[in-house]
Amino acid sequence: MASSYYKLEISNRVNIGSKEAKKQRKQGLVPGVLYYSGEDAENISVDKSILLRAMNSGQRIFEILQKGEKQYTMLKQVQYHPVTDEVIHVDLMRVRRSEKMTISVPILLVGDSVGVKEGGILSQSLTQVEISCYPTDVPEQIELNIEGLELNSGLNVGDLDTGSEEVEVISDVNLNIVSISSPTSDDKEDESLSGEDESVDTKENLDQQTDDSNDKSDSNGIG
């Protein structure tokens, strides 16, 4: 569980509009909005370099200092430039440490499955799962051990173990996360055809060698 949080340096934006936003971006800031249920949204700006490090940290909850008070936020929406992919705007949602929240976290598959070792094909159909917990208990990811996963079998959301009673999985327990399937008939057919091609090539080589030998014998006889 996350015991410390990236601290985002934010400041209130008094002047708004596209021109002001461009000025802030040139200064290394990202314009944004801070939301909180039941309160008016606030226009803010965030230090770009710190924001990018926070986004790449794997954490979902970030610490900010707003009006002299330590608060916690999560990313609500991030807008990227359509050409450069640079972050041009960010929306933050404030959360309270005393209130449970719903958030999606990544699923990390751990181990080498028995089914894959037997030639099976692994397919992961779900990469994130929704959980409910306090902001201080949000995990960076939830691990799912697949070492015992056999051929033609799978694991569902109901097989997840969050490792904490404070973290509740609220996604449908019947949703499939990962499965191991046998190679398709097309794959087997391709292997078979490949083997036949090798046999044909070998036969053609033998026939060519025989013809060459006969030609050589005929040539010696004429001499």
Short description:
The protein has 223 residues and is α+β, with helices and mostly antiparallel strands. Helix content is 26%, strand content 36%.
What would your notes on this structure say?
This protein has 223 residues and is an alpha+beta fold. The protein has 3 domains: 7-95, Ribosomal Protein L25, Chain P, CATH 2.40.240.10; 102-181, Ribosomal protein L25, C-terminal domain (RNA Polymerase Alpha Subunit, Chain A, domain 2, Beta Complex); 192-216. Helices cover 26% and strands 36% of the residues. The chain has helices spanning 18-26, 48-55, 114-117, 185-222, and strands spanning 7-8, 10-12, 29-35, 42-47, 61-66, 69-80, 87-95, 101-110, 121-124, 128-133, 142-145, 153-156, 168-169, 176-181. The strands form 3 sheets. It has a 7-stranded mixed β-sheet with strand order 1-5-6-7-3-4-2. The chain has a 4-stranded mixed β-sheet with strand order 11-8-10-13, with no helix packed on it. A hairpin with a 6-residue loop joins β6 (69-80) and β7. The longest helix is centred in the C-terminal third of the chain and has 38 residues, at 185-222.
